[in-house]
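cache lookup: miss for this entity combination. No prior model stored, computing from scratch. Input as submitted by user K.M.:
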Amino acid sequence: MESSRYLPEASLDAWLGELASSHELIVPRREGDAIVFGPYDPAVSPDISRDATAPPKSTVFPACEELMRYSSVKDADDPSRTLVRMEEVMPSGSRVVFGARPCGTRGFTVYDRVFDAPAMHDPYYVARRQNTLFVTLACSEAGSACFCHWVGSGPADASGSDVLLVPVKGGWLAEGVSDKGRELLDSPLLAPGDKYAGEAKAAKAKAMESLESAADLKPAPESLLAVFDDMEFWNRMSAKCISCGACTYLCPTCYCFNITDENKGMEGSRLRTWDNCMSFQFTLEASGHNPRPTKAHRLKNRVGHKFSYYPGLHGGAIACCGCGRCIKSCPAGVDIRQIVLAAMDRAKATSQGNTTGERA
Amino acid sequence: MQPLEDLKAAIKEALPGLDFVIGWESGWNPLLATPLFMYAPEDVDKLTWGPFNVNNPATYLSALKGKKVGVVVKGCDSRSVVQLLQEKLIRREDLTVFGMPCTGVVDATKIARKVGDLGMISGAKRTNGTLSVTTHEGSLDIPWEEAAADKCLSCQYPNAIISDHFKGDPLPPTLGRDPAAEQLAALEALAPAELFAHWKDAMDRCIRCYACRNACPMCVCRDHCIAQTRDPHWISQDDTVKEKLMFQMIHSLHLAGRCTECGECQRACPVDIPILALRRKLSSVVKNLFDYQAGVDPNAVPPLFTFQVEEAKINERGW
Ligand code: SF4
Ligand code: SF4
Ligand code: SF4
Ligand code: SF4
Ligand code: SF4
């Protein structure tokens, strides 16, 4: 089995059809003015003209998943007692996600360290992750909200993917990244790829060049801790934020969740749904006390988690893939890059005794 | 641009007596200005005015109780300010309103339809009837009518309805098409099952982020919204279309007679669900029943603030 093969554009639909015959196939689809991931329909071509509005995160970490079902039943032997019957709902079946961009799939490497680690093994997440293959599309050029290269990634980053498609003349060079990914390339619709290797390499280099020079984020973890109690800084940084949560729900690396029981009479479901730190309810305690009472506290958590606390716990890995969705989709135009840079400036200014700092 | 310089001067003069003034500055993308909080004179220098000042700064006001703030408004934004005042959600004496005549703002969604990804835009400029947008593929000239927010094509209030400092010459109302009314008429012409199918289809991609709610200047329950309360449990955590649509119904009904049709709810929606039509429908019902339009008359009493045993246009006994 070769590790890279040529996929002519003319064979794309046929190859997708082939993938769909052996897997559940998920593709980016145009719905109204948005592009979102959903089941493949042979009658509708996937829209891969640009990065999808929503990342592919829901394919492995659904917005809402049923963890178990339960019902209350009378004990036949002792009618004064009620028994609870439970049934676990485990994900099954294999799926292929086609057409995400590298930042979207890299997001799962952030989840892996949390949900599939010695300290915590989330069976639901792991089952989906293992059964889901990603055929990712390398970017040809970066947009103005993209900063994947700041966080150690790039327009042709294959981490988290099983196959990486690199645009070349008349189609793509399909590079097998994992063993399972290489198996997907074992199709008569794909041709030998050797002669496209040089072109693919050049395409990757060109995409990288389309990005402006990267900021050095090494001081970020320390800086964010240094400004932790500086509420004037956070109040100003969050002034225009409307505390909605669009940024977290569209983020390929945000993984906070809520678990609730939804009762319907004598039965119900235990659901796990996305939660987000920009919402007041996120840390609202039963007593009514909320340790993060304002949007400033919440935005501080979002930025701090990604660029300081998570790297602190996971060997320096930044919990942001630089996709820029939080910037593009923020109704108020909040730019996370500016906040991280401003925190680094502020920490530096404070340590040099200049407490007015940069306000950005 | 002289009026903008005059406006900046007025803001600088007022600033010492205010906590801050809210306006706009250039954003991460040339097409999208972003709210600017001006605390000091050097912040005021960043203020922009023009077709990219889309955000409604009135959205922030109700959360700023106890502060003395200034706000720069377009005509439509001022309607939200007026409505907030009418509902006593903000205090006039705490507020300084700055305005300039407005000739319309862009609708980023319409432009994205033409250029694809907004992130690929490197320049944007409006000259008279054209918006020129630059991407790596070159420059694209879009007729203003196809780039502007629907509300601007038939704008009745291009000048701030109330203001303390207004710079520039007031403009007459715009007498263009009303695409929003056309869209509403098309939806109203659908049979109930088709209409329901339309909304089911549109709401399917809702991610329940509630950006539509938080962007709305008149949505003031915020942290205590019933969409997220456990008791009473109006909406479950389930992500079915039923739950999502239920929220839109609640939002729309809570905005009946209050919605100023600024369009922020729809603009904020990250997956571009055309939810403004729901609000517009309620507004047209309120207009027909109570002859009331939100936020246009500081002296009017909103219909939900009055009670009459017999409403003139509600036939309570005749059926
Ligand atoms: S940063 Fe933007 S998207 Fe995120 S909560 Fe604030 S306003 Fe919403
Ligand atoms: S924080 Fe923003 S840029 Fe980073 S991964 Fe999340 S959405 Fe993308
Ligand atoms: S509706 Fe009127 S005031 Fe509002 S942005 Fe459009 S033209 Fe300006
Ligand atoms: S419901 Fe929408 S259009 Fe109406 S006031 Fe709120 S944000 Fe504006
Ligand atoms: S902004 Fe859009 S996606 Fe978010 S809750 Fe509202 S309708 Fe749903």
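stored under new cache key. Residues 108 and 177 of chain B are 19 Å apart (CA to CA).
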